[in-house]
Amino acid sequence: MFAIKKNIIRLLTIVLWIVLVPILTYVASLDLKIGVAMVVGIIGMAICLVCVINYKLGYYIFITITLILPLLERISGSSQSVGVVMDGLLISTLLGCILRRGDKSVKKVQFMKDALLISFYLYTVLLIIQIANPAGHRLLAWSIFFRVFARNMIFLGIGLHVFNSMKDVRTFFKFWIAICTAAAFYACLQQWFGLMPYEKAFIAKYPKMFNTTIIISGIRIFSFMSDAASFGIIMACNIIICLILLTAKLSNLGLKKKILLIISTVLQGLALAYSGTRTGYVMLPVGLMLFLLATLRNRNTILIAIAFGFTGLVILFGPFHSNGTVIRIRTAFLGKQDASMDVRDENRHRIQPYIYDHPLGGGLMTTGGNGQLFYPGHPVANLQTDNGYLRAVLETGWLGVLLVAANFFLLISMAVRNYFRIDGEVNKLLMLGIAASMLEMALAQYAQDASTLVESSIMLNALTAIAIKVKYLYALNTQS
Fold first, then answer.
1. What is the pLDDT of residues 171-188, one digit of tens each?
2. Which of 201, 230, 337, 419 has the fewest CB atoms within 10 Å distance of its CB?
3. Could you tell me which residue ranges the O-antigen ligase-related domain spans (predicted)?
4. CA angle (171 as vertex; 168, 175 as ends), nearest 5
5. What is the rounded distance in angstroms from the CA atom of residue 393 to the CA atom of residue 86?
6. What is the pLDDT of residue 79?
7. pLDDT category of residue 108 using cuts at 50, 70 and 90
8. CB count, 10 Å around CB of 74?
9. pLDDT over threshold 70, residue 339
């Protein structure tokens, strides 16, 4: 009976395609845009259906498509509603998770006792309260911000169902390193051979979107991601993870995998340099510092540190005086305080009285360009914070910035505890990689709003889900 039903479904699918092909061809001949829209819609519905059927696969589909959406947007030649695509994929994946009732191991997570999760709950409550903030309470601005926050929390929640064992965790890291290596390779091609024609055309059409991309020394490379800043931050975090994994013994991580990691590290190092993200340059030694403190007795750790230090000295003091990329790296460590930093410090000093007078902040989306759009005339509208912590205290007050800092502290400490509690060298190094990369992210927040960028928020929430789940998976294993 089951076989008969299966054959009927296959037959209906074939008939449907036979009918759709001539219809699409006819419609496309009348209006190309409508035909393309129909094809994209059918492909999109098919992908969403796959996400519903297999939510674990949908989780990776969501990450992949979200990362390459800016590239697809540039190929199309026009700005698209990428948020709608992300929401559709994520809701489909969530629906699949609900229909399949997720994974039973999630019941082991102490949702009402875990300090990190409680900090998320408190931050959510604070954001809800902001709708009544007398200094800034426009529903449209609040709903846009809360929509992005809800998307991140849903993604985090699905991750708790996806990572059911250390095998799932290792699978994610293989996938993440692979896709980031592909991004790094694409960035190198952009630097070596120049931007693609459709990328140049898109920049010419939407120059305001690339104000921070075009600099005096050239173009900051952005790969297939939305901008150079988020790309550079991801590269910096991934480089540390790869370096940490390279310290594993050959018996635990084979020579072939180490060679692939070395290639990946080199490509991502070049990509970070080409991105021109000075925040990313500073992130590297900070992440490496935590790694050294945790594994200083390891011989491979010392070798990695020596190699990293030697490379850094060559870049900083080597005979390279005409290379724009090297000069930009040097200014991050050796350069004097530039005009942009003076402007940022002046803005912070000027806005301090406002911070003291508004304990709940000025309201969501009131700073920077968003403030100028939604709250023209607001005291902090068009104030470019260039600092995630400053934006948090201006928009959500002291409690908001304390919760943001607490989230990072609790996440890093949880990953460090997982490192000392879990078994297996590679597993331990992955936990240390999470701790080091999140420490880098916490530092990056001081220079820019790193955690709210689309690509970096995906990495942040995926690693957060892993850290939380591993904590309880380890507790489950020790009890059994």
1. 999 999 999 999 999 999
2. 337
3. 264-404
4. 140
5. 28
6. 76
7. confident
8. 23
9. no
Confidence of residue 26 (pLDDT cuts 50, 70, 90): low
Q: Is residue 214 within a helix (H) or strand (E), and if so which, with residue range?
A: strand 214-215
Supply the pTM of this predicted model.
0.88
Where is average pLDDT lowest: 240-244, 324-328, 354-358? 324-328
d(CA 326, CA 318): 10
Q: Three-state SS for 218?
A: strand
Question: What one-character DSSP code corresponds to residue 248?
Answer: S
Tokens matching residue 38:
């129909």
For 165, the token pair is: 């064992």
Gap between the Cα atoms of 335 and 313, Å rounded: 15
Q: Is 360 in contact with 135 (CB distance < 8 Å)?
A: yes
Residue 12 CB-density burial (10 A; 0-12 exposed, 13-18 middle, 19+ buried): exposed
Rounded CA gap, 278 and 327, in Å? Answer: 11
d(CA 328, CA 323): 9
SS3 content of the chain, % helix, strand, coil (to 5): 80, 0, 20
- What are phi and psi for residue 214, nearest 5 degrees? -90, 115
